[in-house]
Amino acid sequence: MPSEVLAIAHRGASGIAPENTKIAFVQALDLGARAVEFDVQLTRDNIAIVFHDEVLERTTNGTGRVADTDFATIGKLDAGSWFAPKFARTEVPTLEEVLASIGPRALLNVELKPDARIEKLVRHVATAVARFDLFETCVFSSFDPAAIRALRSLVPDARVGVLCVPDGLDAALRLADEVQAENLHPARTMVSEALIADAHSAGLAVWAWTANKPEDIERLIALGVDGIFSDFPDRVHMIAARIAGGAGSRA
Ligand code: G3P
Ligand code: CA
């Protein structure tokens, strides 16, 4: 077991605030999170926004596909009431707003969620991160191999994480080797001692997603992951500290 495990606030502190909104990121920082994950995609008119789903229905009062909707519409939506009434009128943030808000205060995991406009999304994200001078504190990840390759090609020095799902480990390890990734981001359920040994021997840090239940967090720490995505990053801090006998975590 490593003496420290990094807690990554998944979509911000999304267990206590509406995911991928500025308030979720503020809450994550308030909880002491030193790493924050969020999802980025393009609106119809090529504005990079921080948003998870392909469609607007689950987390806003809008309808339709993000890729078919202009930012003038998305920017006016309520992205908080679905979570709790007190978050009414919370807005969908742009990537620039989130980068400005968090800045260098936390490690950022920018998950690229491209549609067919892969190159365009990657260029927008790289340009924004460069404008805020945050490459040193950014890890870029994606489920889409083309997005990973495009990012690596555009920013050779970027820190890259390859996301993988059950049954996708071999392909993910091959891609990680091809692009010389720094991180492997496996689904929580696929993490095993063997996976961690393979990843570490390939020089990859292992960040597992997404663990919210104490027993899942405990298992991942015992297996030796380097990072844990959680909607409740403070749970990772507390459990890691308890396991380490009060020594704390680097979350
Ligand atoms: O990056 C880890 C995790 O966020 C990937 O899954 O669906 O939450 O974006 P998802
Ligand atoms: Ca994500």
Mind explaining what this structure looks like?
About 35% of the residues lie in helices and about 20% in strands. The chain is built from 9 helices and 9 strands. The chain has an 8-stranded parallel beta barrel, surrounded by 7 helices. Helix 4 packs across helix 5. The longest helix has 14 residues. The chain binds SN-glycerol-3-phosphate and calcium ion.
Instruction: Output the radius of gyration.
Output: 17 Å
Low-confidence stretches: none
Global geometry: globular
Q: Please report which band the strand proportion falls in: under 5%, 5-15%, 15-25%, 25-35%, 35-45% or over 45%.
A: 15-25%
CATH architecture: Alpha-Beta Barrel
CATH topology call: TIM Barrel
Structural class computed from helices and strand pairing: alpha/beta
Q: Compounds present? A: SN-glycerol-3-phosphate, calcium ion
* Overall pLDDT confidence: 96
Q: Count of DSSP helices?
A: 9
Order of helices and strands: EHEEHHEHEHEHEHEHEH
The CATH homologous superfamily corresponds to: Phosphatidylinositol (PI) phosphodiesterase
Helix content estimate: 25-40%
Give the N-terminus to C-terminus distance in angstroms: 16 Å
- The side-by-side strand order for the widest beta sheet comes to 1-2-4-5-6-7-8-9
Q: Give the biggest sheet.
A: 8 strands, parallel, barrel
Q: How many β-strands, per DSSP?
A: 9
